[in-house]
Amino acid sequence: xxxxxxxxxxxxxxxxxxxxxxxxxxxxxxxxxxxxxxxxxxxxxxxxxxxxxxxxxxxxxxxxxxxxxxxxxxxxxxxxxxxxxxxxxxxxxxxxxxxxxxxxxxxxxxxxxxxxxxxxxxxxxxxxxxxxxxxxxxxxxxxxxxxxxxxxxxxxxxxxxxxxxxxxxxxxxxxxxxxxxxxxxxxxxxxxxxxxxxxxxxxxxxxxxxxxxxxxxxxxxxxxxxxxxxxxxxxxxxxxxxxxxxxxxxxxxxxxxxxxxxxxxxxxxxxxxxxxxxxxxxxxxxxxxxxxxxxxxxxxxxxxxxxxxxxxxxxxxxxxxxxxxxxxxxxxxxxxxxxxxxxxxxxxxxxxxxxxxxxxxxxxxxxxxxxxxxxxxxxxxxxxxxxxxxxxxxxxxxxxxxxxxxxxxxxxxxxxxxxxxxxxxxxxxxxxxxxxxxxxxxxxxxxxxxxxxxxxxxxxxxxxxxxxxxxxxxxxxxxxxxxxxxxxxxxxxxxxxxxxxxxxxxxxx
Amino acid sequence: xxxxxxxxxxxxxxxxxxxxxxxxxxxxxxxxxxxxxxxxxxxxxxxxxxxxxxxxxxxxxxxxxxxxxxxxxxxxxxxxxxxxxxxxxxxxxxxxxxxxxxxxxxxxxxxxxxxxxxxxxxxxxxxxxxxxxxxxxxxxxxxxxxxxxxxxxxxxxxxxxxxxxxxxxxxxxxxxxxxxxxxxxxxxxxxxxxxxxxxxxxxxxxxxxxxxxxxxxxxxxxxxxxxxxxxxxxxxxxxxxxxxxxxxxxxxxxxxxxxxxxxxxxxxxxxxxxxxxxxxxxxxxxxxxxxxxxxxxxxxxxxxxxxxxxxxxxxxxxxxxxxxxxxxxxxxxxxxxxxxxxxxxxxxxxxxxxxxxxxxxxxxxxxxxxxxxxxxxxxxxxxxxxxxxxxxxxxxxxxxxxxxxxxxxxxxxxxxxxxxxxxxxxxxxxxxxxxxxxxxxxxxxxxxxxxxxxxxxxxxxxxxxxxxxxxxxxxxxxxxxxxxxxxxxxxxxxxxxxxxxxxxxxxxx
Amino acid sequence: xxxxxxxxxxxxxxxxxxxxxxxxxxxxxxxxxxxxxxxxxxxxxxxxxxxxxxxxxxxxxxxxxxxxxxxxxxxxxxxxxxxxxxxxxxxxxxxxxxxxxxxxxxxxxxxxxxxxxxxxxxxxxxxxxxxxxxxxxxxxxxxxxxxxxxxxxxxxxxxxxxxxxxxxxxxxxxxxxxxxxxxxxxxxxxxxxxxxxxxxxxxxxxxxxxxxxxxxxxxxxxxxxxxxxxxxxxxxxxxxxxxxxxxxxxxxxxxxxxxxxxxxxxxxxxxxxxxxxxxxxxxxxxxxxxxxxxxxxxxxxxxxxxxxxxxxxxxxxxxxxxxxxxxxxxxxxxxxxxxxxxxxxxxxxxxxxxxxxxxxxxxxxxxxxxxxxxxxxxxxxxxxxxxxxxxxxxxxxxxxxxxxxxxxxxxxxxxxxxxxxxxxxxxxxxxxxxxxxxxxxxxxxxxxxxxxxxxxxxxxxxxxxxxxxxxxxxxxxxxxxxxxxxxxxxxxxxxxxxxxxxxxxxxxx
Lengths: 509, 509, 509
Description:
The structure is a homotrimer. The first copy, chain A, folds into 2 domains: 91-187, uronate isomerase, domain 2, chain A (Orthogonal Bundle), CATH 1.10.2020.10; 194-507, TIM Barrel (Alpha-Beta Barrel), CATH 3.20.20.140. The first copy, chain A, is built from 22 helices and 9 strands. The first copy, chain A, has a 4-stranded parallel sheet, covered by helices on one side. Helices cover 48% and strands 7% of the residues of chain A. The relative contact order of chain A is 0.13. In chain A, helix 14 (301-312) packs across helix 15 and helix 18 (402-412) packs parallel to helix 19. The first copy, chain A, is of the alpha/beta class. Chain A is globular. Chains in contact: A-B, A-C, B-C. At the B-C interface, helix 2, helix 17, helix 18, helix 19 and helix 20 of B face helix 5, helix 16, strand 7 and helix 19 of C.
């Protein structure tokens, strides 16, 4: 298949390409970025993709998958904005849809020597960013770099199943695909609301700032021509993290949104309660928290007030700021135990690992890097107080797989309030999903799982991601059936519940 | 298979059930606890369960499994009490046998909103506990929650293979099963000694307090009608943990049992030696230790004496108490290096994570949650001293899988005294066992393993657990044979040794 | 197959063997070291070994493997010495070739109670070491202990494919194999240079001390009869680790080699630069670093000078020494960003875990034990400075698998300078390799991998190790093809690149 020898490897760049490279980026000198790849290979995702190869097991998996393939999509956590559906403006072009805003995609291209500017990301230094067609070409030329990644699966499915593309992206097909997709995206059936319908979405949760007036959510609810369900999620990170320079400004914004003075602890807490109430009145069922770790504090009122004053006045130490953040996370748990909003909690990532990229291109640009996680000790103070409280419920996510079997499954296997969050972010890919099930099921069964969340910023990736999760669960369960650990009827019930009952139950949707 | 739509999901509770739930337990409001499940589905564990689906590989696995299926059971570590066999009283009913005392079972039902009282656990607050029939009903109604868990495999095997049940537990079958099993358990062939024989147990180690007089062990040994082998294990945790309020009382108990004054360090150490000697005289070959971590200290005599005095007199710090505990664990290692008792060591769990449950229902009620483990540094002081000492031997267990490939296999692959303990507690389940073999074998081979331990409190689960382990090992080895890494004759020898030679060697049984 | 009962287990030692054992080594009393094993079982590695059993998938795997089986070997990191090829002396006997110098082999035999002396390792206490024939016998008698290990795969392949052996090592065959191999090794075609040719090695990197004059490398380059490529690697560990008593002597050696006074910081840094330049002039493309962790420091010149003086004069604290080591590692990164040498970095092992063995038998004797690793925070200061610098490049290795998915794949998936090192040391075995691919590919694709390194001290194991890696990659990719995640043409391209382009690119070879 490969006639290449060591002297002329199949995938070596041409000398011309090499010299061009060398003048601009030695770091990627040897990376395959300039390799001419593919011509017009067909894009035809296999109907049995992700299902196990052994014939008997595949048969079981196919039946299980078929039984849930067309279930409605329940998306209890993600980053699509309500504005998208409220405005219902057409998408403009494939680069702006699939490449530039997706940091799963841009980070890997960046790792192969492309700059954020070449990928169309806005640069606060003012350097020009590439036009969408250029971005799309760059993406298509480097498509093979995504082989084996979750992104490749999703984008193949989006291109083929949603957008009707039948040819693989490549240098040779980039321009025709750009033109074809740009035209198609202008059609009525590719507008966000039409896609929402065709995706079979039954409920979609957005992620919102507590000071947000939720105008777009309201616009949707009040629009008689709209019958979908888009609910906000209360995400108060910037109000709880008292260690950042932005915290005072956040307090002001909260004061304005709530009409409550946030200048002392009691007022601040009341303002948060006020905004939670506002969110619930607009359909929210959950809060969402990214914290350095899962630790909470429960100081009494006076102590909390004094701590707040120190931090608020700028006289507190770093430890004070950290403790106040833990205290505020504890307040969130307390509020959840009263108002019943589900507390989605994820920890352990170093955000903005490359400061220069953060400065120029902003957050969520692909260099948030996970850290070791610890939950057994960290969650204890919260679970000691609320772990068996029937109104309290939390869904715990991690980027550190080692806690699945060691900590999260045992916790979810005892506390009625703890749901196991799906494998998430870097772990929302087929093999990682299998590892998750293997790690937790033997300890916690299937019914302590929160089901799948897509966590996506890419609206068109929603059906692809849910489809992937359904296929992986079908594959996984088919293994248990083929090994005679559960029978096929039970497996069918389980997979149905995982993609229907469990996310509703976990997020009280 | 599932006709349910999003509006009427197959497994949604009825409105009546819902309102009933809401009044009593919102935490499990959305959990499937009230779902009517199953009618009279047959219970018929497949003869090839746990064996791989690919036909060639399954053939290999089946031959390997058949070659060890009927080997005697060697159980070098567990929590069955000698009294059970000494008294030989019949079991009373299935709930008292299979549900209430098994914290693998009660914890998962608790996670789905059942209370410990509903599960028959004695409540020190005096709240009434459910009668066995009620407990059994609750268990049967929620049987589907165990799908995919190790507990389900074991209980299916116990019900079918030991107790002759041929119908799955369900709401519909609960009462008839209760009656049937209650009657059957009263028959002579279901008494503990008869079961011991029918299980093919060759050696069974109990876990005992150093102050125990081992009267039940002695009764068995002296009973001419009894030919089994039940040996005690020396478990001195409460004497070594100098940080607990119970420690002084433990010292008094030890003094009484040994007839040696434990009021100074030398006496205390001599008292421990005395009780080890007593245990060895009653057949013990091993000690068993649950420590916060594996660290040992080796202070000289005077320093140890002074430390002991500080802690004993209540003037020591927390660090003193910790150091004394490490010193005492070091003494255990030293004693093992002299008397040859095998030191079984397991670390890294937060016991009593939910204090209220601990207070009301006692220890071992399902909320001991694992922590990160570290052995490379922690074991170093002990192995520096005794690691190549031919009388010293230790078997190391962990609840943190990450140390298998990183630390334990490399340690067991160098030190002749270190045996790899089997995957244990939350990890004694099929997929976790496969992960264990994958993690350690390439570094340490098969012959540094201690073989399987069942670690069970449930007498009737012994054959099920050993059978599961044999099946998993057959499945695992069949993979190596099918990939032509080892030949089938070698695999047969290995699986035999894993379930016969290795536990004898590791525990010097 | 096994007629053994509990009383006479198939593999129990004879009573005679037992009593013999007991007198000399109770620690291995129950170990199977004395078990007579095997007679004349054939040694015939299966052509499809390591390929998946399912027939369709095996067909794919076989085609993928065939497409790379005969590719030249690129070995960018290992411990074969240039002297071996420069001198081209014949190997003397199989024990000196395969057993005594291979700490993968000696450590496991040691774990089963054999002493280092019995394995031929030189003892600085002067105790006699066994003769090669005795060592070989000991090895052959215990050959079954290696079942399931990576070492067994490699040695089987070496014996069969390189040395033409067709019978398994065993007590019965030890002497004839020793004689046969000793004779064969004296033949011209088994000399190092002839083997280099027959192994198809295209490039081989050695690991060298910065003060080394590289005379053997030069001798090879200047030898007109030699056409291979053997390049040195700059490994400055002992110069960078300021915490050891040997550090001052290392500085002197460096001063002598460079002709630059290393008595102050500036001179020391210049001397290191000088030796890097020297190494580059002799073909080196990379440096290699084993550090306690990956942390670097970047103090300014004056501060560094003062720190150096404190440590150099012996007045510095332990923290000073550590900080200086981090500063020096930072200098290495800075130099790499200027001279373009690739920085291979591996961390997290406790070397010399058993001090007595270290003292008597030296380093690299099988008791270097891995520790937990952390890279996200530790690498940040270095990557903040050089992470997107096109001349800077690093290949990161770990002994702690947990960082693959959590830290290394996300880092390599963003920074163009970071390549994922292959699974290494204890992890360079088939199942660990599969876990590595599963852990990283979904996040980072295939093209952020550095390809395989053999890291071997055993020259004859080079082809076996590369062949194993190619088989495992073929097996792994065949799974993705069989699950329809990538098509077979793409898989063929990927496996070719993994064993050709990627190591060249990662190590700039």
